[in-house]
Design a protein that fits this description.
The complex is a heteropentamer of chains A (about 100), B (about 500), C (about 250), D (about 600) and E (about 500).
Chain A: H1 3-24, H2 28-50, H3 58-89
Helix pairs in contact in A: 1-2, 2-3
Chain B: H1 2-6, H2 8-26, H3 31-56, E1 59-62, E2 73-76, H4 78-101, H5 106-131, H6 135-153, H7 159-190, H8 195-201, H9 206-222, H10 232-238, H11 241-265, H12 267-270, H13 273-296, H14 300-327, H15 330-365, H16 376-379, H17 381-395, H18 401-415, H19 419-443, H20 457-475, H21 478-485, H22 494-497
Antiparallel strand pairs in B: 1-2
Chain C: H1 3-35, H2 42-54, H3 59-67, H4 69-89, E1 100-101, H5 108-131, H6 139-155, H7 167-191, H8 202-228, E2 231-232, H9 238-243
Parallel strand pairs in C: 1-2
Classes of the chains: A mainly alpha (about 100), B mainly alpha (about 500), C mainly alpha (about 250), D mainly alpha (about 600), E mainly alpha (about 500).
Chain lengths: ~100, ~500, ~250, ~600, ~500
């Protein structure tokens, strides 16, 4: 088991955990955190992959950077949205379920 | 000037993006001018892109002059052109509509101030999606358009819109991660992000399969395929109407488009037909489930949104048909291909028309309960006509464009002996009749309604134009098929080669 | 049983049902990581080969702003979209979403600290842009520092809060992206390819772009922060500051 | 039009006039306000037919002798002809129509609906002439139908409930007859059809029945009109309620259309259908006797006359039956039947008109004498008393039958002979009931009303003779024992019989109501109808709403399930589950 | 001439389509303009159809081809059958338009009504002009959709329900048709309608599928033709205004279904090939049953229009009966009934509408003495009713005559029983109407005659039924002439065998 594998496996486990959290955590902030964990997992895997071979691969790094910016942007917006939601609905969670009886 | 004229595709991305920045930075000043400029730009660039395509055949554009796999490459062929056509048509129309939709009240002006930049970014993102052939670039463009789309939904400050968009956002982000994970695996396995390069290198293998499966999951969630569609109806139904139109007509197609590209390039090599059948089964379930839900709704926009869920199902039935064709007679695959793309186009036009018409209704009577529609047929004849004409396409009745799509898909399924899909599609058509006529019969009910606000004629005209377009494409498929034939992969091009 | 209660039960049951599914997912993914083929090293080699033409010395920057500069261009767009979207949530700009209690702007210690730290941060940011061409760094790092500087200012009450939506701010926000996009389209005019910098100009242009981008990114990050964390100041007289906003 | 006319020779113009004159008058009558004026012209419409018929009868070789008129554009290629075969029919029919129309002018002069009556009268007349002259099936059928349907208006003329019922029965039976004829015609053509199947169907001869089933259809189809036993119920119901002149033509002229149909379409002289022939003989004779018995029980003179018609038609039916059994006899039988038909027509017409006459004239003095003696004479003629036309007709009939060589020949002749007893019974009953008809001064008519009556009286003497001279060779005619006093025997029996039963017959209401079997048919019809009658809701409507209800009931849980399903899917963990499951399935499928 | 020939079929469609569009675009209150447009359109269409009639008779080819899908063109073509049906439609459209103008005087939604009315006729003409299945299907569906607003025209609960039922049935049928069409094309490729059919050349291995396809087609078209058990929409669609019912029953929807069957049997499969496949008999039986069923149901209706509706159910199946009787005579009967039924039925609906509109009577039992109040209307009705019964020499007789001959020719003598029973039933439900109307005394005092003059109602309302009644007489009485529908049917039939 190489270092790459360890990072990689950690990455995917983080991803799965994050997604699991997203699915199961009712609080919106926790959902967002879960998402960030998941994306961190993916980024970790990317970085790990860059370390394979004899030469450091700059491409995944660039991709991760891009990914991070996107992730930051999305998270910021999501937090704003969550805050707005809480202000309007008074609840930090999404209604379960979303669909009302027509 | 010559190089500009030679690369019209770049303007498709650049013009709306610059328009977005401008409308953001300068807000009210000269907005109409900027919008007109952008729309004209879109129209001209689209036309020129097509002209170039027709003259030169399929071509690629290596960004920065860096050829793949180092750089990002755009591939412009018939399929991309078809989606660009849809985007331009619907985009221009929605823009025209939005100019009227946001009125002069302070509140509406504030909304408009954010609508335009977000909307132009969305357009730019969509063009970028349809042009590119780089799997990571797709991630970026998906995020760009996705984030813009969510932002647009929240312009409607209704609580349902906010919760809907929150769901949408979370799902979209999660779906993107799935997709990205798949991209990472593919990159790890083949060392390239370029689709063409990948196509050359790809081999069956567990990593490949998992990667493709991950990407597929992400994309079907973005495309709102059953059972991952649940975010769509609240989001689409509660957004401002031009936004709903854009979402249903264009944004969900993005996920489908990428999946189709992957399918076409990679899957003939690696995919098993069971995967395709699985997707088809989800599509079939979507048709039935979405239609059944639409029939139950008591709000117009929810009904239309569920109709989108159903209509997306047709797109996915294309996949098992493609595979059946590849396994059997390539002609069948080409039927499925042409039919699937046509479905994307026809649904886009018709659904945009419907949502825009719904917007007119809301403008006129203040809400979109189905029962508020009673007697509106007489008060808003243009809008009612738009709904009716758009519905023809959705129901798959000639001369709606949806008929051509359904015809080809049906032909493929019958010819390849896959009767199940045919039955579902026919049932779906009938159910579409079921939910659409819930609308129409209220429109035709005799009731004297006081229209609260006479909507601007232009809004009605735009909806009607789109609806008529959906019939125009239904009357003759040749123009689109000529376009689509350019650079169609050999595996699906047989039918279109038969064009005179 | 009411529907709502029914859902709660679904919720509980489905949570537990999720666990095995996700464990299976994890197993599949781990297996996939383990069976990923070794790198073929093609891309790093290509990057190396083309470094000379990229106009920069650092491969990461080369990839980020030249080879895959288009990704970066769009990514800046994403950032801008996020800002617009956040602002749109609170269209009036009157109130933020979260309430922060600010220290008094008259706090002398804070002022002194800031007067030292802020110039340093700006300097650092400039350095980051400069160094990006041959070492890890670049517009993002620089922008992050600038953003942090702005956030510091905001949370110390020195910058009008919420972060103003004046045209100047908006120009700063949109400027980087617009410039980048304009350059991209200008290269089409001259070279026929999007973002195809003339070889001789590549370095300069990238530097220019990075500089502007850094400003924009910084502004964007600060705007995001301000948009999310609308500031509420309890002290008298503060409303005048709170009301300051773009036209 | 003139070009068309110029291609017609004078004979064809005459024929066209015969056919078109009633139609033309009818069309004019449809113009608002014209009906009442045209009403009086009805007898004139029948006039051209009389000379035309006579001409054809006696100068067959002249330009007016054998006329053919083909109008291919009409219906399915219409063909008309006037020749020796149908001239006698046209002759007595036209005369009857003329007299009845003439009589009607007086009889209905005060009737407010006389215009309507005139229209129907003209229509029926046109149909009657047309069917006599038609030589192609479509036209024949057309004219037959026109006559039948137009007569309906005559039957229900006064609009009283009894008339309406009678009209309904009449119409029902008429339609039934049409339908049976139609089926017969259609079936009959097939063996004669050319290979291409699209050749024009030329003449009625092509449609002669060639197999027993088709013949059976024709027998029944025309039997309705001819009052074949079992199908005769409309006769005794319709005749009493119709205005007298209408009854006269119904019973005298129109009833013969059935005979004409049989003669055209049964394979007389070609094939022998002994079973059907036997059936017709049986029904005919049974009808002759049974009708006499039932008729005797009637209280209204017109009902008695109607039964008499059934009875007389039974004898003619017997003749046809024999012709069907023994084809070789046709040449002798047909003239005999024609003669008999004409004789019956004149006599019956006069008797009917008498009923009317009595109600519109206050008979006193010479009128009374003339009336009763004329009636008696007609009655005697009908019975077949020696030296009357009836005797001549019966003699001709029996003579023809006598050559048959049938096993039952003697029996038939005997039965034919003794049918006269029944007729005697009926005539006595008629004369008796006629007395009860009272003078109605509201409808008093001028003396002119006697004119048609007197013409007919002459007709009874001369008319059959003319026909006989036309259709028989004179030597044969001379040999007929029409003066035989043997004929008196059945009369005596009949008279005695009437004397015996007379005391029972004095009730106000008939013992067996007119229309005898109708009650039975109606009851059967009601039973069958009840089976089809809807309960509360009509079948399909109930089924539809039932299905709709069922659908709604079925949809309620489905709808609920859909709602819950969609709600469940929007629960994060469940959708996550779904997503995860889809993912795993896709992984698995992708392998 | 040749270049114009290619345009005429399209022009025939456009005359009513453009009219419809302009009418919809005009305001509700532009009565005069609308009336003028309607009449101009109808007359223009008549003229063009007459031109085609003349041309087809003299061997001209009228064909418009529009590329639709690769391999499939939209083909508008005039052949014998087309001309038969389009002459009927164009003629009756003119009359119905006149009638509708009078009927809807002062009622709401006239703009919508006349707009969709024109579209409906466009669709019908399209159905008749269609040169292949796709084109046929296109107009067939267009017909369904454009008729819907007419069915629900009144916009009340009842008409909405009827409309829903109508849609459920007709679109369900279309789905079957669509499946059949796709299937057939997947077996046989693209083809145009051809006299004597095109499918007989297919290998015998496909025959099993072809049988099923035939059933799909016929059931698909059978819904519109109100074949039992697919007929329930028709009686309930009676809630529509009278001109709509008239058009629906006589020309448009029901007839399009029947015409579709004709096309399928003759020009797709070919009657001889269909006979080889042994698919005709089931439909013969279905048609026979429908004939009897419709009549039996009509018998117990007291609602005037309902009775007529069930009568339509019965009468239209005569057409199917005719085309499923193998042999030229049956074909002639079926084809000629297509026209005859239209002329007769439209008369009846005009008349029923007149009575409802003028005297507000809807039940048969209320019609006592109507004949005297409205002699022209009732006279027209009577002629049509007698024609329906098959009384010679009216139109219905001609049809029944050939149908009967056809039955014998094809060796299905039992069909005669059906015809006979049906005629009796027809008589049983039509004649009482005549009796009540003509011979029973009115039990009420009628309102004064229409204010406009000596006619019993507005002349817009009276002229059309009188004209169609005259036609009923003329097409029957002069069936033997060279210009009668019968001769045309004979001409067509000659080409089909």
């Amino acid at each position: 088991m190489t270092v790459v594998s360890i990072y990689g496996i950690t990455g995917v486990l983080l991803f799965v955990m994050g997604v699991f959290g997203l699915m199961t955590q009712p609080h919106l902030l926790k959902k967002l955190l879960s998402l960030n964990i998941a994306s961190a997992g993916v980024f970790l895997l990317m970085v790990a992959l860059a370390y394979r071979g004899d030469k450091l691969d700059p491409v995944p790094h660039a991709l991760v950077l891009t990914g991070i910016v996107i992730s930051v942007s999305a998270t910021a917006y999501a937090v704003a949205l969550a805050a707005r939601l809480q202000k309007i609905t008074g609840s930090p969670t999404l209604e379960e379920p979303a669909v009302d009886e027509p | 000037m010559i190089p500009v004229l030679q690369q019209p595709e770049t303007w498709l991305v650049a013009i709306p993006a610059l328009g977005a920045a401008t409308t953001f930075a300068f807000r009210e000043q000269g907005r109409r001018g900027v919008v007109s400029f952008v729309l004209a730009g879109i129209a001209i660039s689209t036309a020129m892109t097509f002209a170039k395509l027709l003259l030169r055949g399929p071509y690629s554009h290596s960004i920065g002059g860096w050829v793949a796999p180092l750089g990002i490459t755009w591939q412009i062929d018939g399929l991309a052109a078809a989606m660009i056509l849809l985007t331009s048509l619907v985009g221009v129309m929605i823009s025209r509509y939005a100019l009227e939709y946001f009125g002069s009240s302070a509140e509406e002006q504030r909304q408009a101030a954010y609508f335009w930049p977000l909307w132009f970014f969305l357009l730019s993102g969509l063009y970028a999606i349809f042009l590119t052939a780089d799997i990571f670039n797709w991630y970026v463009t998906l995020e760009l358009s996705g984030l813009a789309a969510v932002g647009l939904i929240t312009l409607s400050e209704k609580p349902q819109a906010l919760t809907g968009s929150m769901r949408y956002l979370l799902i979209a982000l999660c779906a993107s991660l799935f997709y990205l994970l798949g991209v990472v695996f593919l990159y790890g396995e083949y060392g390239s992000l370029d689709l063409t390069t990948l196509a050359a290198r790809i081999q069956p293998g567990s990593v490949t399969q998992v990667a493709l499966a991950l990407m597929t999951i992400g994309l079907i969630a973005k495309a709102a395929l059953f059972p991952l569609h649940f975010w769509l109806p609240p989001a689409h139904a509660n957004a401002p109407s031009p936004v709903s139109a854009a979402l249903s007509a264009l944004v969900v197609k993005a996920g489908f488009y990428i999946l189709l590209r992957l399918q076409l390039v990679l899957w003939p090599v690696v995919s098993t037909r069971y995967l395709a059948i699985g997707l088809g089964a989800l599509g079939a379930a979507a048709i039935l489930w979405g239609s059944a839900q639409a029939i139950r709704q008591s709000r117009l926009k929810l009904l239309i949104a569920y109709s989108t869920v159903a209509q997306i199902g047709y797109l996915f039935i294309m996949f098992p048909l493609l595979h059946a064709g590849w396994a059997g007679d390539p002609l069948w695959a080409s039927y499925a291909w042409a039919g699937g793309v046509y479905q994307a186009l026809s649904h886009g036009l018709a659904k945009a028309a419907l949502f825009l018409a719904a917007g007119v209704v809301i403008h006129a009577v203040g809400d979109d309960r189905l029962d508020s529609l009673r007697g509106l047929g007489e008060k808003l004849p243009l809008t009612a006509t738009a709904m009716a004409l758009a519905g023809i396409s959705l129901m798959g009745i000639p001369p709606g464009a949806g008929f051509i799509a359904k015809w080809l898909l049906l032909s493929a399924s019958v010819a390849s002996g896959q009767w199940g899909w045919a039955v579902v599609m026919i049932l779906g058509g009938l159910m579409a009749v079921g939910y659409l006529f819930r609308v129409y019969r209220r429109l035709l009910t005799a009731r004297d309604v006081p229209v609260l606000h006479q909507p601007p004629r232009r809004m009605e005209a735009v909806a009607l134009t789109l609806a008529i377009l959906s019939l125009v494409f239904g009357l003759s498929s040749y123009p689109l098929f000529y376009l689509l034939r350019i650079g169609a992969p050999a595996s699906v091009g047989l039918y279109l080669e038969g064009l005179p | 049983m009411s529907l709502r209660r029914k859902h709660r039960r679904w919720y509980r049951v489905s949570r537990w049902a999720l666990l095995p599914v996700f464990i299976a997912l994890a197993v599949v993914l781990v297996q996939t990581v383990l069976s990923t083929a070794p790198a073929n090293g093609e891309l790093p080699r290509l990057v190396d080969e083309e470094m000379s033409a990229s106009g920069v010395l650092h491969p990461l920057t080369a990839v980020l702003l030249n080879f895959r500069g288009y990704d970066t261009l769009l990514e800046i767009g994403v950032l801008l979209v996020a800002v617009i979207a956040v602002w749109s949530l609170d269209a009036s700009g009157k109130s933020g979403h979260l309430r922060l209690r600010l220290p008094s702007p008259n706090n002398a210690a804070l002022r002194v600290d800031l007067s030292i730290i802020l110039p340093l941060m700006v300097l650092m940011a400039g350095y980051m842009v400069w160094i990006g061409s041959y070492r890890p760094g670049g517009a993002f790092q620089s922008g992050a520092i600038l953003g942090a500087a702005a956030v510091t200012l905001i949370s110390s009450g020195m910058l009008p809060a919420p972060f103003g939506r004046s045209r100047r701010t908006r120009l700063a926000l949109a400027g980087g992206f617009s410039f980048f996009m304009t350059v991209a389209i200008l290269t089409v005019l001259f070279k026929g390819r999007l973002l195809n910098y003339p070889m001789a100009w590549a370095g300069t242009m990238i530097l220019l772009i990075e500089t502007l981008l850094a400003v924009s990114i910084g502004a964007a990050l600060a705007a995001l922060f301000a948009g999310v964390a609308g500031i509420k100041v309890d002290e008298p007289g503060s409303p005048s500051r709170r009301e300051e906003r773009g036209p | 039009m003139s070009a068309m006319l110029s291609t017609l020779d004078p004979g064809q113009i005459l024929l066209a006039t015969v056919l078109l004159l009633p139609v033309l008058l009818l069309v004019i009558a449809l113009v608002p306000g014209m009906a009442d004026r045209i009403f009086g012209l009805a007898p004139i419409a029948a006039l051209p037919a009389i000379p035309a018929a006579l001409w054809a009868l006696f100068f067959p070789d002249s330009p007016f002798g054998a006329i053919e008129l083909n109008v291919s554009a009409l219906v399915l290629g219409a063909r008309f002809a006037l020749d020796l075969g149908n001239a006698p029919w046209l002759f007595f029919t036209a005369l009857l129509w003329c007299c009845a129309g003439w009589f009607g002018r007086y009889y209905l002069a005060h009737d407010e609906r006389r215009g309507r009556y005139g229209g129907f009268f003209l229509g029926a007349m046109a149909g009657n002439f047309g069917l006599i002259l038609a030589r192609d099936p479509a036209m024949f059928f057309t004219c037959f139908a026109v006559m039948s349907f137009m007569s309906y208006g005559l039957v229900i003329h006064d609009g009283r409930p009894a008339s309406m019922v009678a009209g309904r029965v009449y119409l029902g039976m008429a339609v039934l007859g049409e339908v049976l004829q139609f089926a017969g015609l259609v079936l009959a053509i097939f063996p004669n059809l050319g290979t291409s199947g699209l050749e024009n169907f030329q003449t009625l001869e092509h449609f002669r029945a060639s197999d027993p089933w088709v013949a059976g259809l024709f027998i029944a189809g025309f039997g309705v009109k001819a009052g074949l036993l079992g199908l005769h119920v409309w006769l005794p119901m319709a005749h009493p309620v119709a205005p007298t002149p209408a009854s006269a033509v119904l019973s005298g002229a129109m009833i013969k259309a059935g005979l004409i149909g049989w003669m055209h379409l049964l394979p007389l002289g070609l094939d022998a259908f002994p079973v059907l022939g036997g059936l017709m003989i049986t029904l005919g004779l049974a009808g002759a006797y049974l009708a006499a018995v039932i008729g005797c029980l009637q209280t209204h003179p017109k009902a008695v006359l109607a039964y008499s018609s059934v009875s007389q038609m039974g004898l003619m039916t017997t003749g046809i039956g024999i012709a069907l059994t023994a084809p070789y006899l046709v040449t002798a039988l047909i003239p005999a039947i024609v003669l008999y038909a004409s004789h019956h027509a004149f006599a019956k017409c006069l008797l009917f008109l008498s009923v009317g006459l009595k109600s519109v004239r206050n008979l006193t003095g010479w009128e009374r004498v003339v009336f009763w003696s004329g009636n008696s004479f007609a009655a005697l003629a009908l019975i077949g008393a020696p030296f009357t036309s009836g005797a001549l007709a019966k003699a001709a009939l029996k003579d023809a039958v006598g050559r048959a060589g049938l096993p039952s020949e003697a029996t038939i002749i005997t039965l034919l002979t003794f049918a006269a007893a029944g007729t005697t019974l009926l005539m006595l009953r008629y004369l008796f009931t006629l007395r009860t008809i009272a003078y109605d001064e509201h409808h008093a008519s001028p003396v002119g009303v006697w004119q048609p009556w007197l013409v007919l009286l002459t007709g009874i003497i001369v008319g059959p003779l003319i026909v006989a001279l036309g259709v028989f060779d004179h030597a044969h005619l001379g040999s007929l024992p029409f003066a035989a006093l043997k004929g008196v025997i059945p009369m005596v029996i009949g008279a005695a019989g009437y004397g015996l039963v007379r005391r029972w017959l004095n009730g106000e209401t008939p013992i067996i109501p007119a229309g005898d079997l109708y009650r039975l048919y109606a009851a059967t019809g009601r039973v069958i109808g009840a089976a089809f009658r809807p309960r509360t809701q009509t079948g399909a409507a109930a089924a539809t709403s039932g299905i709709a209800d069922g659908f709604r009931r079925f949809m309620q849980p489905v709808s609920r399930a859909l709602a819950q399903g969609e709600q469940a899917l929007s629960v994060w963990s469940i959708s996550g589950l779904a997503a995860g499951a889809v993912a795993l399935i896709l992984f698995w499928l992708a392998q | 001439m040749t270049s114009l020939d290619a345009w005429i079929p399209l022009l025939v469609l456009l005359t009513s389509f453009v009219t419809g569009v302009i009418i919809l675009a005009l305001g509700e209150h532009r009565v005069a303009a609308r009336t003028a447009l309607n009449l101009i359109g109808a007359v223009a269409k008549m003229g063009l159809v007459a031109m085609m009639l003349w041309g087809v008779f003299h061997g001209h080819e009228y064909q418009t081809r529009i590329p639709f899908l690769p391999g499939f063109d939209l083909v508008l073509r005039a052949d014998g059958m087309t001309v038969l049906f389009s002459t009927l439609s164009a003629g009756l459209w003119l009359l119905t338009t006149i009638y509708a103008i009078g009927y809807l005087e002062n009622s709401p939604f006239r703009r919508r009504f006349f707009g969709y009315f024109s579209f409906c006729v466009t669709a019908t003409m399209g159905v008749s002009l269609a040169g292949n299945l796709v084109t046929f299907f296109l107009f067939y569906e267009m017909l369904t959709l454009t008729t819907y607003p007419l069915v629900v025209h009144r916009g009340n609960e009842k008409s909405i329900k009827a409309g829903t039922l109508y849609l459920a049935y007709t679109l369900g049928g279309s789905a079957l048709f669509l499946v059949g069409m796709v299937w057939l094309y997947s077996i046989a490729g693209a083809f145009d309608f051809t006299e004597t059919g095109v499918l007989s050349a297919l290998p015998s291995s496909t025959h099993g599928s072809l049988v099923i396809i035939f059933f799909l087609f016929m059931l698909g078209a059978g819904v519109k033709a109100a074949l039992f058990p697919l007929h329930a929409w028709l009686p309930s669609a009676m809630v529509a205004p009278a001109p709509v019912s008239a058009l629906l029953h006589a020309v448009a929807v029901v007839k399009a279904g029947a015409f579709g069957m004709v096309r399928i049997v003759y020009d797709v499969f070919g009657i001889e090939f269909a006979e080889t496949l042994q698919v005709l008999t089931p439909f013969m039986i279905m048609a026979s049953f429908t004939i009897l069923y419709g009549s039996a149901r009509a018998l117990v209706q007291d609602d005037f229009k309902k009775r007529l509706a069930f009568s339509t159910v019965s009468q239209v199946s005569y057409i199917l009966l005719g085309i499923t009787l193998f042999g030229p005579l049956g074909t002639v009967g079926g084809l000629v009934h297509l026209v005859h039924q239209g002329v007769m039925k439209i008369t009846m609906f005009f008349a029923a509408g007149n009575i409802a509109e003028t005297l507000h009577l809807h039940k048969i039992s209320e019609l006592k003495g109507v004949g005297r109040r409205m002699p022209l209307t009732m006279g027209a009705f009577s002629i049509a009713a007698l024609g329906m019964i098959g009384v010679p020499p009216l139109a219905g007789f001609i049809s029944k005559w050939y149908l009967g001959l056809g039955a014998v020719e094809s060796g299905n003598n039992w069909v005669l029983l059906v015809l006979a029973a049906s005629s009796l039933l027809n008589a049983a439900y039509f004649l009482p109407i005549l009796r009540v109307a003509w011979f029973e005394r009115p039990d009420r005092v009628w309102e004064e005659r229409h204010a406009r003059g000596w006619l019993e109602a507005s002349w817009w309302l009276v002229i059309p039924p009188v004209v169609t009644a005259l036609l009923t007489v003329l097409v029957g009485l002069f069936a033997g002439s060279d210009y009668s529908p019968l001769q045309w049917a004979l001409l067509i039939t000659g080409r089909e065998y």
